[in-house]
């Protein structure tokens, strides 16, 4: 499999990294390459209305175990993100097909446009399949060159008006498995190759604006200032403590202050809070605490506070019994089976969201790097990861019954 990962990278990457951006020629070339591999197996290959490609290995029963991944990458991306999932799934299909007809049907899916790198809509294909993609919300999207999403889709035989027909691919699925690189530093920090994913973080994004009074930086004594930027800065630092106490993460990635003159006290300052947690209650508590702290700071700094919720996603927990199976498999192969939450979103969340019993495995990312050409995992760990997915498939087939 590592040989094939290299082959794919040579075909679709360059000195800056992987270039398999969805709905481009390079992406189509990657899929053609993958198609040739699938055609060597006794599987039926078909694309759904959203461009997701399904390879079905018929089993004794029609109940389907799904294994997912995505061949698309971000521009200048890593060689493993998404591609590992698919090629590991291909390895598993090969092994199962060799052993004869499986008890249940196995379907390997290459989700279309997981990254959303070109049009800004991540989990495009999987959310079309889960029914959470609203065609009205994506209809107007265009890329940085001004090419409309509908036109880019049409070039690859996908009709924007018919995306909804991909719904039903997940209906009645017995289980969903995905192996992904961690894309973070946790497993390497623990010095373990593999981990089991408990679910994906919920998210709350909030715009916080402080309004004070712009005034002269020289003539205004310190004790009478109403400095909006100072208030925002205090909240930024508090947010880190709130996340540590609450067991989640909290980030301020953008700040703007006005009037933006070196000799003026900022009268207005706006920041955007991004808070994430694996549990809905934990997330709500973190957001409530941030709001209370913002109010206290506003009072102390004598500035006005405006709190505006921008966007929220619920946490999506994976299936407890499949998490246990994952832990059993990882413990067979490594000294320890840590479980962790996923910060990034994954297609697996769309499967779990509509009630398909789901679990993911993570394999260690070197230096925690991803979405960059430096993304890497040791060969030894890649091989261990395929073995883990294979064993998890066997155990999950038995679990389905
Ligand atoms: Zn990915």
What labels describe this entry?
single chain; 401 residues; alpha+beta; 9-stranded mixed sheet; 4-stranded antiparallel sheet; 12 helices; 17 strands; 25% strand; binds zinc ion
Q: How would you portray this structure in words?
A:
It is elongated and about 85 Å long. With 401 residues, it is an alpha+beta fold. The model has no long low-confidence stretch (mean pLDDT 96). The chain has helices at residues 2-12, 25-38, 83-98, 124-130, 135-138, 149-155, 186-190, 228-246, 280-301, 320-333, 347-353, 379-400, and strands spanning 13-14, 17-18, 44-47, 53-57, 61-69, 104-110, 175-181, 194-200, 202-211, 215-216, 249-258, 264-265, 268-277, 304-313, 316-317, 339-342, 358-363. Zinc ion (ZN) binds at residues 70, 81-82, 114, 180. Residues 70, 81-82, 114, 180 line the site of zinc ion.
Summarize the structure.
The chain is an alpha+beta fold.
Which percent bin holds the helix content? Answer: 25-40%
Task: Give the overall pLDDT as a whole number.
Answer: 96
Structural class, from helix and strand content? alpha+beta
N- to C-terminal distance: 29 Å
How many individual β-strands?
17
Count of DSSP-assigned helices: 12
| Beta-strand content bin | 15-25%
The backbone outline, from C-alpha atoms, is elongated
- Report the C-alpha radius of gyration, rounded: 24 Å
Strand and helix order: HEEHEEEHEHHHEHEEEHEEEHEEHEHEH
Major β-sheet profile? 9 strands, mixed
Q: Bound small molecules, which ones?
A: zinc ion
Instruction: Flag low-confidence runs.
Output: none
